[in-house]
Amino acid sequence: MFVDNEAKPSRKRMRLVGKNSRKALKSLHTSGRRGAARTIHNLKKKNPNVKITRTLSYMAIHTRKDGSFLVPERMARINAIIEDDPSSIDLDLDNDPVAQVCGPDQYGRVLGMGVGVSKTSLIASGPAKEKLHQETQHCTMVEERVGTIEKHMITLTQILMEIKDQCTKSVVADTSTSSVREPANTQSCGHYSHGMQLCELLNMHREVVAKGRATKTNVFADMNVDSSLEIYNVQVSLVLSRSERLFGSKKTFGELNFPAKVKWPAIFTRFI
């Protein structure tokens, strides 16, 4: 049955037409079983931030593994057009470099896009693809910015820890010096004779907003605020929250000129 069917004159004519058509081909593709769609997918995967146009896919599909071209003269003309006008690869299907060299597409096929892809379908899906490409680029930019901010935060944290260590060493040195001088200044200093200690200043949420030193026994009442509230005079050495407001003032820690002393409630002062 098969032999009889293939022996018919109509089938012989079809095979002859196919043979002549294959001989007339001027630009064979090199995608093999992968096809155009898989080649385009691999290009997008390799370069996610690059828009894969019809010109780029056509050149990839018609290039051998060693980088040579099946039809060098066509590729040379396409490359010449791109060199003269790099933006030409973004032109429509009737005016891009492939169309200028190979002519406009016909019969429901688009060169460089594979079988089953028509010009009508590409035009219809163009806006959605462009929007998706823009969203992908935006997400990539946001991820890069987040990564940059994280690196800056790590650097700032390291700097902050170094400043903290330096301040701690400085306060310890000052405390040692004041302890040595304490016997000579006992009568003149009164309740300051015990020296100053490291302390943390807390806000209403019990978060540390600044660090400094104060005399633990030097507690007083501020009549301008609340006579029943015990207050410390704190020598601020490190500010952790510049936007935090000072006690009894509209100013913030960020407005202080160092070295600076501030009044801070005893209930929100923690000695360390």
Automatic annotation (TrEMBL):
InterPro entries: Probable_transposase_24. It comes from the Eukaryota. It holds the Pfam family Transposase_24. This is Transposase. It comes from Coptis chinensis.
